[in-house]
Write a structure and sequence with these properties.
Immunoglobulin-like; four-stranded mixed beta sheet; Four Helix Bundle (Hemerythrin (Met), subunit A); 383 residues; 13% strand; alpha/beta; 11 helices
Amino acid sequence: MQALLGTRLSADINLTAQILILFGLWAGFYFARRRNIPRHQTIQTAMVLVNLFFIAFVMSTSFYNFVILGGTSAGTTASLMITHGILGLIAEGTGIYLILRMRTQIIPPRFRVGNYKRLMRMTLGLWTIIVVLGFGIYYYRYIGPPQSVPVAAESIAQAQQAGVDLLIHAAELSDSTERGNLQTVRRHAEHLVNLIEGESGANYGDLDGDGFLEDPGDGIGLLTYLQSAVSVSLDDTTESLAAEISDLLETIDELALGVLAANELNSVREPVKEVDRLTQRVNGEDVAQLLAGGPDTVIVLVDNFAFSPRVVTVQKGTTVVWINKETPKHTVTSDDNLFNSETMSVGVNFSFTFDETGTFAYYCKFHGDAGGVGMVGQIIVEQ
């Protein structure tokens, strides 16, 4: 149904239907209390079967797109959808059981609930709770304000700071080695690995085992920034330089991991010196400007189920790079089908160059929809 009507209209129809179904179930309960059992059975049967249709053609599709395809299990909306889905299946299954129990002899005697009236009342109460959860899902997905996320810093400044952080923490690694403090040495080695790899890296985490995950960067990782620089590069020189810097960063990363595995201070002195030397080489290659992708590049972060900044104003000819910072999968899809990233896993980036002026709205296929629904953004291109 979503494919025919769109995400928002399908949700509107489903929410209206769920309200009517709940009203019908309570009406059926009323007739049961009035001893009008035939009408009670007819209404309850109809409501359960109609709800089965909406589960099959609306709710399961919505759940699959948002939670399964989107790789989403965290966040208010996803949590509500998962809870709603589990309780909904229980309520629908119980409803079907009660229909078979009341109207057929299919259920073997040993599986028949004796006090089915109590089960009916419990199911009606559960159904009411599920509809309330449905209101919550509708609010957070379509009506409520976007989740609060920190506004991304200006692109070049972000990348410049990433390059500076690399130099700073390599120097701190060297200083702590001279002071003879192995624990501090391992702490700064953790900083370097997390700064280089970012959250999508295989080794990202609490590497020194002190109970704290420390990342002096923004979680994206220098290697991911490099990939974004290459994705918008049009010349061989930039790509060659990016490949060289990438090799240096990977070597520094391996050396830092070796330092983390060391149990004796003297064994880390030479690797630390090599880290310092390679970091100076990286800095000498003007890594900060390369990572920024040049003055005509803007970076938009995809994090916490939002695009940050949500609205970006750029000049004609600017390339916008979107980088997915989080585990849930996302897409960058324009309302007018001008661009589409396909599925972006954590650490993946997508770029598009805007050669025409105008306002370009876009959304995530998994967590939003065209027309400003859910997870959306906007690029304003000026002359």
